């Protein structure tokens, strides 16, 4: 008898809804992760993860047990050395998190601030790179700012970095495996991802893809980290086909299955499926009169920050509970300046699932006395605005 698992629809920006086959791939005979069989599994997973964004001739994937944050932390704490200067683009919660990491590790860093819902001012960014009294050696930026759905123009930033000989570090945790990325073309040296978003695996693995030549550089600096040391994790796996420390064994079996399913669907088709769900979402909230943040041109079409309804009976927690008890999980907003909630359309879901969610949302809104009406206006802005600090 084929086991089935209750299907919850996660409209959260990760972990995302997985297929039953991914969930069930975790049920395997116990195995010691130092066995050759497991080493072969990890090797195949790393090669395929690299292929999602680069060619495995010049780039390599390194995996750690951890969440996405540990992939970013591993890069920043391993590759920015004494004497280097890191420029962090902070245009949302995840850019801010990188600033906090730089502070925790005492990295020499400066911050390029920009609002979370408007395009980065690339001219200002370029002039920051050029006018810095000390040479900026590294630039760290988020690809898809998951708080607002804003996509940063990584290809253009990569071009700036190429011209100024700056090493580019990209947090692609919420874009990896949905939005096509070509590390070589975009000029990215280090990229962070995780197993539980668009790859549609389960949580447990943080992923770094980097230029192999850089990973092979022999360190001349005292390491700032231990478990998250990128070079040591890379080298140990290269030499032994084993992870330095205990990996999340079952998450790797699930990831193997998830990657097989990604290959069958194809990244472009997956992104098209996601975009179809997004369009259903946008049509639905527009009809209900709930504006959202961002301009469609810069929008990832993966996660949307929606303004909370103006109604006396509204409470995010009650709306969450109403939907959750009916199989749909939604997410709070993460913006200081606006009252929003977030809906993501990633994972193993379809536009029909999104329509079912919208029907429930409308029922909830009517119940609290919110009158669905014409959209008053999308909070959109293409205006460029930023301040370099
Ligand atoms: C862009 C980005 N960076 C980092 C993270 C942190 O990932 P995790 O919660 O897996 O540590 C997230 C999570 O949503 C993200 O979207």
UniProtKB/TrEMBL annotation:
Residues 37-295 form the Aminotransferase class V domain. Keywords: Aminotransferase, Pyridoxal phosphate, Pyruvate, Transferase. It catalyses: (2-aminoethyl)phosphonate + pyruvate = phosphonoacetaldehyde + L-alanine. GO terms for molecular function: 2-aminoethylphosphonate-pyruvate transaminase activity. It is an enzyme of class 2 (transferase). Substrate binds at residue 342. The modification N6-(pyridoxal phosphate)lysine is found at residue 197. Its EC number is 2.6.1.37. GO terms for biological process: organic phosphonate catabolic process. Its cofactor is pyridoxal 5'-phosphate. Gene3D superfamilies: Aspartate Aminotransferase, domain 1, Type I PLP-dependent aspartate aminotransferase-like (Major domain). Belongs to the class-V pyridoxal-phosphate-dependent aminotransferase family. PhnW subfamily. Homodimer. Involved in phosphonate degradation. This is 2-aminoethylphosphonate--pyruvate transaminase. The lineage of its organism: Bacteria, Bacillati, Bacillota, Bacilli, Bacillales.
């Amino acid at each position: 008898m084929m086991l089935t698992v209750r299907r919850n629809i996660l409209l959260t920006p990760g972990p995302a809804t997985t297929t039953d086959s991914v969930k069930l791939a975790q049920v395997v005979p116990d195995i010691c992760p130092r066995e050759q069989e497991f080493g072969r599994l990890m090797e195949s997973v790393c090669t395929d993860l690299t292929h999602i964004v680069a060619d495995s001739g010049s780039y390599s994937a390194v995996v750690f047990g951890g969440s996405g944050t540990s992939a970013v932390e591993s890069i920043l704490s391993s590759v920015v050395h004494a004497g280097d200067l890191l420029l962090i683009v902070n245009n949302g919660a995840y850019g801010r998190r990188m600033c906090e990491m730089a502070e925790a590790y005492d990295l020499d860093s400066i911050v390029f601030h920009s609002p979370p819902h408007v395009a980065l001012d690339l001219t200002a960014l370029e002039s920051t790179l050029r006018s810095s009294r000390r040479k900026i050696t590294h630039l760290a930026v988020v690809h898809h700012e998951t708080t607002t759905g804003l996509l940063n123009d990584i290809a253009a930033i990569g071009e700036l970095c190429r011209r100024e000989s700056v090493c580019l570090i990209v947090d692609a945790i919420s874009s990896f495996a949905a939005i096509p990325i070509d590390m070589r073309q975009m000029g990215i040296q280090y990229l962070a991802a995780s197993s539980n978003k668009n790859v549609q695996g389960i949580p447990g693995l943080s992923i770094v893809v980097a230029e192999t030549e850089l990973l092979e550089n022999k360190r001349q600096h005292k390491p700032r980290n231990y478990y998250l040391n990128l070079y040591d994790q890379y080298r140990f796996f290269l030499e032994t086909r084993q992870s330095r420390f205990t990996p999340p064994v079952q998450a790797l079996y699930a990831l193997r299955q998830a990657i097989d399913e990604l290959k069958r669907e194809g990244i472009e088709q997956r992104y098209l499926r996601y975009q179809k769900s997004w369009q259903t979402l946008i049509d639905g909230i527009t009809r209900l009169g709930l504006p959202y943040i961002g301009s469609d041109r810069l929008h990832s079409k993966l996660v949307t920050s929606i303004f909370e309804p103006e109604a006396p009976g509204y409470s995010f927690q009650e709306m969450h509970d109403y939907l959750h008890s009916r199989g749909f999980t939604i997410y709070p907003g993460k913006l200081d300046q606006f009252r929003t909630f977030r809906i993501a359309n990633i994972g193993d879901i379809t536009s029909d699932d999104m329509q079912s969610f919208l029907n429930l949302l409308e029922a909830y809104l009517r119940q609290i006395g919110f009158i669905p009406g014409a959209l008053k206006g999308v909070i959109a802005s293409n205006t460029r605005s930023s301040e370099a600090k």
